[in-house]
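Kindly inspect this chain:
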Amino acid sequence: MRYLPGPLGLYRLATQTRTVDARFDPSAKKATKAVKADLALRTGFAKTAKTGAATRDIGTLSTALIYSDGAKWVDVGRTAVFNGASSAAFTYINGSSSELGAGISATGGSGTWSVAGTTAKSSTSTQSYSPMTSGQTIFQTQFEYGVYLTVGPGYSYYEYRPVSYWGGSRKFATVLSVGSYCAFMENGDSLEKDSTSASTFTAGVAVSGTLGFNLSAKTGYTNSTKLKFTMLKNGYVCGNAGAPGGTPGLLTSRT
């Protein structure tokens, strides 16, 4: 009898159903769970692993969601209004796409995770945030995160990445500086940005309690994610990376 070693135990190289002790909770704060894994094997290696969630069949590999870590707050926008120069309204509309950070681990254990690129996820509903007329603010919504197990020919690994859009909203104060690429605007006029990439939030996904560090997040001003300034005084809209009408990065307003 041949066996395939893996972090969840030894997989016998024949179609079988067995209960495995799945120690995949990366925070090690929740009780260990047992997962029924129906292992359909092809050419002597794991082909498909079912855990009650949908699986992705990619040849001799199988990837399945084995643990949900619940909803996590994600930065999707930020701006600042100085000296009451304008109102600023941010909208995260149905279909808005965010590049969200992911983690990877060989064992899934606490302290074994490292950063592993990004995964694109889109919203499935519209989230509007009340206009602000002063302050420096980050806008957040929630995405569900979970642990995925990939099993291949003689190896396996774990990924911690977004599962789906969850929803919700909150804003909190931060510290931002006004950009140096400024365009003058008269009282009552408005500018709406909806066509260029925004800056990356290097710690934009709050998962340090799970992985030991936060992950990055990036949301662009697309045709469904918008930031609108309406001037309350004569003043300026400013970008920190380029002109407001071009590729501004962070957008703010000032008098």
User: Anything to note?
Assistant: The chain has one domain: 63-254. The helical segments are 208-211.
